[in-house]
Fold these 2 entries.
Entry 1:
Amino acid sequence: MRRRPTQGSLSATGHTLLAVVVDDEAWDRDAEAPNRQMTATWDRATNELHLHNGRISYLARVLEDGSLGHLYFGPALMPGRSYWHLGHRPFEGFSNRVGEPIAREYPTGGGGDFRVPALVAEPADGSTVLHLAYAGHRILPGKPALQGLPATYVEADEEAETVEILLRDAPSGIEVALLYTVFAAAPVVARSARIRNGGTQPVRVRCAMSASLDLPDAAWDLVQLSGTWARERHVVTRPLAPGRQSIASLRGASSHEHNPFIVLARSRTTEDAGEAYGFSLVYSGNFLAEVEVDAFDSARVRLGISPESFSWTLDPGAELSVPEVVLAYSGAGLGALSDAYHWLYRQRLARGAWRDRVRPVLINNWEATYFDFGEARLLEIAASAREMGIEAFVLDDGWFGERDHDTSSLGDWFVDRRKLPDGLDGLARKVEALGMRFGLWIEPEMVSRRSRLFEEHPDWAIGVPGRPRTESRNQLVLDLSRREIVDHLFAVLRDVLGSAPISYVKWDMNRSITEPYSPALAADRQGEFFHRYILGVYDLYERLVTAFPDILFESCAGGGGRFDPGILAYAPQGWTSDDTDAVERLRIQWGTSLVYPLSSMGAHVAAVPNHQVGRVVPLHTRAAVAFFGVLGYELDPTALSPDERRAVADQVAFYKEHRELFQRGRFVRLRSPFEGDGNEVAWMTVADDRRRAVVGWYRILNDPEPRLDRIRLRGLDPADLYRVTPWPTAGDITESRNALVRGGDDLMSAGIIIASNRRETATRGDFQARLFVLEAVDAG
Ligand code: GLA
């Protein structure tokens, strides 16, 4: 029986706030769109929800006690059948045993479920025991926006369906609206929640997760992306064990240390086979991602705002929206999981004019000059870069106030005429006259003690009155939880960005938040500070991207300290890491690619010895790593030798030729730097039509008698013939066996051959890289 949601009809329980659902016409829409397999159905007879898109199913139902139970999330199950049996059956040995692993959609504590809750809310009586009972639901075409929060979206209603389920705790009046969106095009379900105080007394919310998911077994590895400054997002894998295991940030930003993303994968799962669940939180502030394994080997996963640094008071009638979490399932390995996130985040999270445009190759002056520059020096760098084909010049830190060092001037967003006598406008026009775009670095959220802003508004910096403030990089953080400070920053930055032809902005955030406290919040609302701060950041971003729709925003936080899906909704690319060393970047870019698309990863070629690790990696290898992302250069081009200049010009030309592939192709990870000795790494990017691909292969340390290596490619058309051309062709000693036309089946089953020639100095030594371009040729 097919049914169609009908706006305005009432649910079985007749709840009046949410108009509900489900009548018999409904599934006729499928008949109108026969290719569309996506459906959200609510069976009134069994009170079962089934989200389905041909690849995945997500099932929930109303349990006998009125709560919303979880049934299943995984490979698609046949629609139209009942899966009631997957739900909770009471333990039969005793009539009322507590502690049973009842799977619920939004668990609360204190009622016999002793695992970690999704919601802890304290009504006026101070209790935290809630019984959230189903009170209605509605099915909406498309996907509604989340008020004030970044989120995935649709461009047409046909792309997704959203179910909103209302739960209510009758004694307190606390209501929870759970939102589930199933997308037609990807094996993902986006979840979020709204908590509303429907009672008459204030309610204090102490924990409000974005999602909780109960899995029926715990035989999973937990995969997380962890590290620190300059080595962000390394892949760390550990088997689940009884008890709680988590990653979190309490730094005010999602952090260098842990990304708000985890995977549960079977121990045998590889890049192209096996099961994996992904959990990605669309949020840039303090988060928690946790898995609890109980005595019965069920696994509960919860993600959301970190409850440790959070509480929120809801007055009667008030509502709190929590961030979105994107759940993904793959039965075909980590690669397919990444494909789903890459598509969604590139196409339906990133927004604005630059979402679909190829991004310019840029030169950034930071590592070339640091704070020591004048207009002539910058123009020299820009002109020299332009000659090599580079398309944009980005002026980094040091252009404002009296910023000769990191001890001053943050907050004083007016140009330093000592360095730039013709102002930003003068410089930007001269850069444009060279045929380049002009970009600018800002760090809006910060203030230096030595600044006019701090002199005028010492109370705008975050801190607890009467206590010392911890400085980091000699700077303090502005209290963006306060509206007037966000207004001030918007006004100032609107002036700056409007004062010159600026087409690119690098928005930095160079320290964690300490002494969290806002004098603007009442004592019993200080727990709201961190979340209000990040809402202020989102508000400022939203206003600026709206005011300057043609500017390409790049996010940065001391490199990759806030590289998360929340920021990606405003800035379609981010500075992946301050570490520009190619060997380090292999690991960083590999880890980042588990969830984030190539179009989001800024990747620069920097000078050697590398400024972060002192390593000397050949120029070719530095480029061969940076190609897989949004390419830039971060060095002094005037210091390059004529040979190096020719090489860079060739690199830029090569990148431009294949830019669509490098920025928007399907990224396929072939050999991991995190497995085995990690000495050989390989990856590739493939065009959607599979007619072009570029393969990158890297050997970190050389061997006296290097092994003959073969890499099995993936994602090609097995029936196609591909011309395999090493790049650069001249000087590459890869033997002619590869410079052939070979079948996709051959390349995927036998593999591409990486030969070494010990006599060729060009490819001897450490830190080697090979690139191969594959182009389909028409047979015959
Ligand atoms: C941070 C960024 C760098 C650079 C400096 C400038 O560290 O990550 O790329 O912009 O700030 O101070």
Entry 2:
Amino acid sequence: MSEPELINCLIIGSGPSGFTAAIYAARADMKPVLYQGSQPGGQLMETTEVDNFPGYPEGINGPQMMMDLENQAKRFDTDVRSGWVTKVDFSGEVHKVWVGEGDKALELHAKTVIISTGASAKWLGLESEIRLRDIGGGVSACAVCDGFFYRGQDVVIVGAGDSACEEASYLAKLCNKVTMLVRRDEMRASKAMQHRVNDLENIEVLYNTETLEVLGEEAVEGVKVKNNQTGEETVLTATGFFVAIGHTPNTAIFKDYIELDAQGYIVQTKPGTSITNVEGVFWSGDCADKIYRQAVTAAGSGCMAALDAERYLAAKGEH
Ligand code: NDP
């Protein structure tokens, strides 16, 4: 059997952080190889308009932006490959990574690895929610990205954690009215975040309330909800439906080697850098960021990861 391919800089994931890491690594002559994963382009492929990424004065749609980032990475000869990384072994000097399943998995060796696997927003899983999300009909998991489209309108947000409170407060500045649906009789969010929500007059919190259906054919027209204590069903009028029930970082395959927090996010071992607890392995983007979660912050950390990887190799005299 031939020796596994030895890669200088292996980037796992193809969102804004992965491609930005690739652009920087390629321009530094690190000959990066980027594996795209199961959702090439990452979360932005689920977004319609991106109006907050600097440099696009007219906005751009998410999938187009990802194609632009990919083309930019390829312009500097990033080797972009399809494939799903299923297993890693970060116990040795050289990092081992397997692409594909079972006996057919391809073993690769890498001097540096940049983990850019992102996080996936959780959805309620209602047919109406997913259908309207997929046609860009007013269902979103990111208030900062999409709130602007609902200026002066009435919106509903589901969730009771810090994210939901933060997003509800953000929406309250733009929208006429925000109705927050909390499934229990209390919120999970910190007291400070709850105060922020309660202090805003145009946020109404409905406790013990669950979503039954998002109404509307082409676009959100309302939300049918049920009080799980009384059984009473009500229809709320709204043009936007926001889901803020948490994210799942895509880090499960790294758990035996990389330090993760209780929710599975990669621990930022040395704040202000992309260094992880394993030498030569770096993080970028939402797999380690549960606070900001923006395309631009993900891109920024992709740049950091490539620079950190380059400096790591240079310090070892290998670049
Ligand atoms: P969390 O997991 O903290 O909260 C998720 C919320 O969604 C919970 O209130 C949960 O309800 C609710 N939920 C889950 N599933 C459903 C469902 N099917 N229907 C209705 N509600 C549902 O996620 P967050 O994204 O809010 O936060 C993740 C982490 O990031 C936390 O540690 C948080 O503190 C941190 N964070 C910090 C911020 C800050 O400091 N500024 C900002 C944002 C996040 P229930 O409570 O009933 O389980």
